[in-house]
Design goal:
Layout (H helix, E strand, L loop, with lengths): L5 H33 L32
Length: about 70
Amino acid sequence: MAKSFYSFKKRQKELAKKKKKEEKRQRKLEKKQRKLEAEGLTTEETPDESQDGIETADEPRDDVENPEKE
């Protein structure tokens, strides 16, 4: 009986899964860009996705204790 290449098959399956996931991510990104372009926005006007919608303030907030003010 022939020896099975389980680890090889498993790795190939994992690579295929990873490739499929990346293609899906690319499709979603392209779809989002087309939608924004249709609305008249450009990708430069959209918030940076790396921040996940978190806005940072240039000045400290008043409702947070700041030991430097004391």
